[in-house]
Design a protein that fits this description.
Order of helices and strands: EEHEEHHHHHH
Number of domains: 2
Mean pLDDT: 76
Helix content: over 70%
Strand content: 5-15%
Low-confidence stretches: none
Radius of gyration: 27 Å
Strand order of the largest sheet: 2-1-3-4
Length: about 280
């Protein structure tokens, strides 16, 4: 049986080994919490007891297993989304060749071309719905992974905190979201590297900068697309429509590949740091 103190210093007990383990896993006590076997036994930090190694090992194993699973799902969705955009670029390139061959056959575009253009817009709308559905899954996986990574950073560095203004600005000033999420990624990346005695280097900074640039650029390109082309079926606009959509898909694919690289780097560093975590 065990007696223990919580984070405020209040004493509780007695509790069984299994109950003490649950208290540690729930975060109510940590390695610095004082524990005693009772009956005159001295109080000592939980982290200095032989039993703590077993509890810690199971907790870290569960966290690493869950983190690995979330990272795999997130990276798989990133790759799937990137490949879907690359497939769209290839399909658009093939379609562009067909359109150019028809236009180069002589004469003004006929009714066939008008129907072809209208049909292409229908395909684009279906593709847009498909991409939107994929994005919902991707965003959910991204937020789950990011929240898990933030919690890991707090475990690794108890002084790590995102400024409260981060959340308030994100909610009340939407334009702040062009900067704040990338600041969070940078902060997690930096703290994770510090926990394995490494510092951010120029390559890490470039990854984050490119990641921010392509995200913002993709948002701007998508906004321009909806202003210029959405719902138009004019034959004369079809070629530029295809080119612009290909360009749009390429920027989104670049974002996915950069996310994949950054997520992999943060995962590998945190996995290594958690392995030696107190």
């Amino acid at each position: 049986m065990w007696y223990y103190t919580d984070k405020s210093g209040a004493k509780f007990g007695p509790v069984a080994d299994a109950a003490l383990k649950r208290l540690y896993e729930s975060g109510k006590i940590d390695g610095s919490s004082l524990v005693s076997r009772g009956l005159g036994s001295a109080w000592a930090p939980l982290g200095e007891t032989p039993e703590f190694a077993k509890i810690k090992g199971r907790r870290i194993y569960k966290r690493l297993t869950a983190y690995t699973r979330k990272t795999r799902v997130f990276r798989a969705l990133l790759l799937a989304f990137a490949l879907a955009n690359l497939a769209y670029i290839f399909a658009g390139w093939k379609r562009l060749g067909i359109i150019e061959s028809i236009l180069n056959s002589g004469g003004e575009p006929g009714e066939f071309m008008r129907l072809y253009a209208a049909e292409y817009v229908k395909v684009i709308k279906f593709y847009s719905l498909l991409v939107f559905a994929m994005m919902l899954f991707l965003f959910r996986a991204m937020f789950n992974w990011m929240n898990f990574s933030l919690y890991n950073a707090k475990l690794l560095d108890k002084n790590f905190r995102l400024n409260p203004l981060f959340y308030s600005l994100s909610f009340f000033i939407p334009v702040a979201n062009f900067f704040l999420p990338y600041y969070a990624v940078w902060s997690v990346f930096r703290v994770s590297k510090q926990c394995v005695n490494r510092r951010m280097n120029i390559f890490d900074a470039n990854y984050i900068l490119l990641f921010w640039f392509f995200n913002v650029f993709a948002i701007v390109v998508n906004a321009v697309y909806f202003v210029l082309y959405y719902g138009k079926v004019e034959v004369d606009a079809v070629e530029s429509f295809i080119w612009f959509n290909g360009f749009r898909a390429a920027t989104v694919a670049a974002v996915c590949f950069l996310w994949f690289i950054i997520a992999t780097k943060i995962y590998n560093i945190q996995k290594r740091a958690l392995g030696r975590f107190e």
